[in-house]
Specification:
The complex is a heterodimer of chains A (530) and B (330). With 530 residues, chain A is mainly α. Chain A has three domains: 30 residues, no CATH class; 315 residues, Cytochrome Bc1 Complex, Chain C, CATH 1.20.810.10; 85 residues, no CATH class. Chain A is built from 19 helices and eight strands. Chain A has a two-stranded antiparallel ribbon with strand order 1-4. Chain A has a two-stranded antiparallel ribbon with strand order 2-3. In chain A, a hairpin with a 5-residue loop joins strand 7 and strand 8. By secondary structure, chain B is an alpha+beta fold. Among the domains of chain B are: 79 residues; 132 residues, Rieske [2Fe-2S] iron-sulphur domain (Rieske Iron-sulfur Protein). Chain B contains eight helices and 14 strands. In chain B, the strands form four sheets. Chain B has a five-stranded antiparallel β-sheet with strand order 4-5-6-7-12. In chain B, strands 8-9-10-11 form a four-stranded antiparallel β-sheet, with no helix packed on it. Chain B has a two-stranded antiparallel ribbon with strand order 1-2. The longest helix of chain B is centred in the first third of the chain and has 31 residues. In chain B, 32% of the residues are buried. The chains are: A mainly alpha (530), B alpha+beta (330). Chains A and B meet through helix 5, helix 7, helix 8, strand 4 and helix 10 of A and helix 3, strand 3 and helix 7 of B. Strand 4 of chain A pairs antiparallel with strand 3 of chain B, so a sheet runs across the interface.
Chain lengths: 530, 330
């Protein structure tokens, strides 16, 4: 036994005698993870969260969360002598007078953008492959919660420097709070400690940004990962992969090295962006002043859809018994986002209600094999894209020489017309792909080789698929539609007949599929060829 | 499932294909060297970082194509850090892909649902323990417990009461009173009508009584935009026309939509545009909304001149400024 092995054995013995963890650790270190590039999206979220914690901690050493008015005396000459909040002055101090401070600020901001982008990409992967199905509904809901909190956390974060741009964003948030019926003004005065902007706001959002929300994030992410661990990861379909097994690489050493290495790669790329790509140059905006504004005010990208919705709202205000109801703010600012996020959280339950499928699923769907779900996803993405485009309508107008009114009207109409259109088109594409799969399995691949038969006819040679490929294209289930249950066997009307009818209608749409080839189809064709 | 509908059979996991480094010692040696070199690149990155920290002046700027003039200190700190981190990652991944085992392993799942006897055991245990606690038999304890637990939440909620004052009339009042002078922002100088040419725009604030300091809270409500056009261009009713002075019209600068500063004035069309959500107001028609999401015109401030010829407010704003709120019209 080498000296190193002896030391390792002693350490293991010491730990196990105190924790009894040998069995558990053995199981953990040999745990199997399936491999696929799309499984790394969630990893990016986790890693950028760690980067955010590290870089954020660094920033807190100098940042001063105070709206106390100070005179700027730092080394950035253009703002010298200007009155500003201590928060803004300390953000400038970090940017210009702390070595590596600007780098860390930029890494922090880039990591936040990547955090949100990876979260959205991860969400799409989970949605389009049906990974949210039983038993993973809890994790889906936690994910929706993380996404929602991520938007809030990001917004609060870029509000902390208290520059002109971020102050404008807070002003808008305050207007949304104020628009809430009955309690809006009270809420606003409590949150801001008086009239806007007051002198309390920055220190309050600071504690939410660096303590409260990160704590909740940490707890939710831990539960999220524990569930992934406990339920074992989903896997893509393929030969040898079933609902009852997991095929992949063991944690130690392969997965440890890959995942650990990937953390450093994500960190490296973020650091590179922080080094070369300027982000949120607060010194250009100047200190916040509610009487001033910069042209082209834009939120960070994950808030863009919300801003776009607010911009496209028609100018509606209702008056009830003399009270004001700001529909032009409430509908785009609170009601539509509320519907979107609630609908997203409930989606796994809605889908299983429609299909009547209550079984566990560990094999992922190929998106084409769930046409309605894929089409719904494309519809949502289209909605988000139109609103996002409108969120940047002023920049689009100046960059591409368009009129803002044209873009606004395009968005107002497009946001209603384009998503259903995307649904129909995507569903057709999915069905076409299913048809193509069927053709491939039955007739093989086109080789492009032409052969002239003795009697002069030309045919193209088709090459049969490998059994592995043919299996992959046919392994999925095609569930039949649910029948409406209108009355029982004695002819008594079902009290829930309307619900049952709706469900049956949705289920029929859900079950619209191109029949996949069966073993028998293939056999018959093979018989015919020979 | 009938035989005709049976799916294609599962051919099982494909056979494992060995990598070059698994079978060829030379290839393995080469992979080992590559991993080592990648780790060394990371070391270079750290050295670059240390050099940038100690050796490059904080105020040194260099020209980099695409980026333009860039602070060299920050740039090389960042590049060093990026290299140091990135190549550790690359080395680990390359190591895993070329030299660590790539045999796919099969692990089996079990259903999440517990066995029936475990579930029954759980239910009966919970029932037994609840019975032992005797909550069902002692309703007095149950009710008083619920009452006390329900009420104890009042204390922390009450403690939040000092988060802020109640709004009162704060949202509806500004520092504009009858006879308040308009002063320039910035500068705090009173202005005469002749200071503003036709086509001109100026931002003003109310003159504050001596000794009072202007806070951001004041600016958030008091900011006013003065615009001067030719008087015959106005399209106003008699009352609103009397609120102007020699072609000078004054509007609250705080957007009636969400409170941004309405800062973009287009001289030729006489439109005011809010850069936040593009609400557009027609100056000649008392800031009527002609485009965008705002539901109300910008409040107009009635102005005239005092005995010394300086512009003053005739009266306070006739409506609350800024975004709408529930009790706005009460």
């Amino acid at each position: 036994m080498s000296a190193r092995e002896r030391v390792a054995g002693q350490v293991a013995n010491y730990v196990d005698e105190r924790t009894g963890s040998a069995k558990w650790l053995k199981k953990t270190l040999t745990k199997v993870f399936p491999d696929h590039w799309s499984f790394m999206l969630g990893e990016i979220v986790l890693y950028s969260f760690i980067i955010l914690l590290l870089s954020g901690t660094f920033l807190t050493f100098w940042y001063d969360p105070s709206m106390r008015e100070v005179e700027y005396e730092g080394s950035y000459q253009p703002l010298s002598g200007l009155k500003m909040s201590a928060a803004y002055a300390s953000s400038l101090h970090i940017s210009f007078d702390v070595r590596g401070g600007l780098l860390m600020r930029q890494i922090h901001h880039w990591a936040a953008l990547i955090f949100m982008a990876a979260m959205v990409a991860h969400l799409m992967r989970v949605f389009f492959t049906g990974a949210f199905r039983k038993p993973r509904e809890f994790n889906w809901i936690i994910g929706v919660g993380l996404l929602t909190l991520g938007i809030v956390e990001g917004f609060l974060g870029y509000s902390l420097p208290d520059d002109l741009l971020s102050g404008t964003g807070i002003r808008i948030a305050e207007a949304i709070i104020q628009a809430i019926p009955v309690v809006g003004s009270y809420l606003s005065f409590f949150i801001f400690g008086g009239a806007f902007p007051g002198e309390m706001f920055i220190q309050r959002i600071y504690v939410v940004h660096i303590l409260l929300l990160p704590g909740i994030f940490l707890a939710l992410i831990t539960v999220h990962l524990m569930l992934v661990w406990y339920q074992k990861h989903t896997q893509y379909p393929g030969p040898g992969r079933t609902e009852k097994n997991v095929v992949g690489y063991p944690l130690m050493p392969t997965y440890m090295a890959k995942a650990g290495g990937f953390f450093f790669i994500v960190f490296g790329v973020t650091a590179f962006l922080g080094a070369v790509a300027s982000i949120n140059p607060i010194w250009i905006y100047g200190p916040y002043n509610p009487g001033q504004i910069g042209a082209g005010s834009q939120p960070d990208w994950y808030m863009g859809w919300l801003d776009g919705l607010v911009r496209m709202a028609p100018p509606l205000e209702a008056y009830i018994f003399g009270y004001t109801l700001s529909l032009n703010i409430l509908i785009p600012g609170l009601i539509i986002p509320g519907i979107i996020f609630t609908g997203m959280a409930l989606y796994p339950f809605i889908e299983s209600w429609i299909t009547g499928d209550k079984r566990e699923h560990h094999l992922l769907d190929r998106p084409r094999n769930a046409p309605n779900r894929t089409a719904l996803g494309a519809m949502s993405i289209t909605f988000m894209l139109v609103t996002l485009i409108n969120g940047g309508n002023d920049l689009l107008a100046t960059h591409f020489d368009l009129s803002i009114n044209q873009i606004m009207w395009f968005s107002r109409i497009g946001v209603i017309v384009l998503p259903p259109l995307a649904f129909v088109i995507t569903k057709r594409i999915c069905l076409s792909l299913q048809r193509a799969d069927r053709e491939l399995v039955l007739h093989g691949k086109e080789t492009g080789r032409l052969v002239m038969l003795p009697h002069g006819e030309f045919i193209e040679v088709h090459e049969p698929l490998t059994p592995e490929k043919a299996y992959l294209l046919t392994q999925h289930e095609q569930l039949p539609a649910l029948e409406a249950n209108l009355s029982n066997e004695y002819g008594v009307r079902n009290p829930k007949a309307i619900r049952s009818k709706i469900r049956s209608r949705l289920s029929r749409s859900q079950a619209e599929q191109i029949a996949k080839p069966t073993a028998n189809d293939v056999k018959e064709l093979e018989g015919g060829h020979h | 499932m009938s035989k005709e509908l049976a799916p294609l059979s599962d051919p099982g996991l494909p056979e494992h294909i060995h990598r070059k480094a698994d079978v060829d010692v030379k290839a393995a040696k080469k992979a080992e060297r590559q991993v080592g070199i990648l780790f060394l690149f990371s070391v270079l990155g750290t050295l670059l970082f240390v050099y940038a920290y100690l050796g490059i002046d904080e105020d040194a700027f260099i020209f980099v194509p695409v980026l333009g003039s860039t602070n060299a200190h920050q740039l090389f700190l960042g590049l060093g850090l990026a290299m140091a981190l990135f190549f550790i990652g690359m080395a680990a991944v390359h190591w895993a892909k070329t030299l660590m085992p790539d045999h796919e392993v099969i692990d089996y799942r079990k259903e999440q649902r517990s066995k029936d006897e475990d579930r029954e055991d759980f239910v009966s245990t919970v029932k037994d323990r609840a019975n032992e606690a005797g909550l069902g038999r002692r309703p007095f304890i149950k009710r008083t417990m619920l009452l006390s637990l329900g009420l104890v939440g009042i204390s922390p909620v009450l403690l939040l009461g000092d988060l802020g004052p109640l709004p009162g009339n704060d949202q509806k009042e500004t520092n504009w009173k009858s006879g308040t002078r308009l002063v320039t922002d910035p500068g705090d100088r009173p202005i005469r009508p002749s200071d503003l040419e036709v086509g001109g725009v100026a931002q003003v604030q109310p003159e504050l009584p001596a000794g009072k300091v202007r806070h951001l809270d004041d600016i958030a409500k008091d900011s006013v935009l003065l615009i001067r056009i030719r008087p015959e261009e106005f399209n106003l009713d008699a009352e609103r026309l009397s609120w102007t002075y020699e072609g000078i019209i004054a509007f609250s600068k705080i957007c009636s939509h969400m409170g941004c500063a309405v800062a973009l004035y287009e001289q030729t069309t006489k439109h005011l545009l809010c850069p936040c959500h593009q609400s557009t107001f027609d100056v000649t028609r008392a800031a009527k909304v002609i485009f965008g999401p705002s539901a109300r015109p910008l409040p107009q401030l009635a102005i005239t001149v005092d005995s010394q010829g300086y512009l003053v407010a005739k009266q306070p704003f006739s409506e609350p400024v800024g975004p709408s709120f529930w009790g706005r019209n009460k």
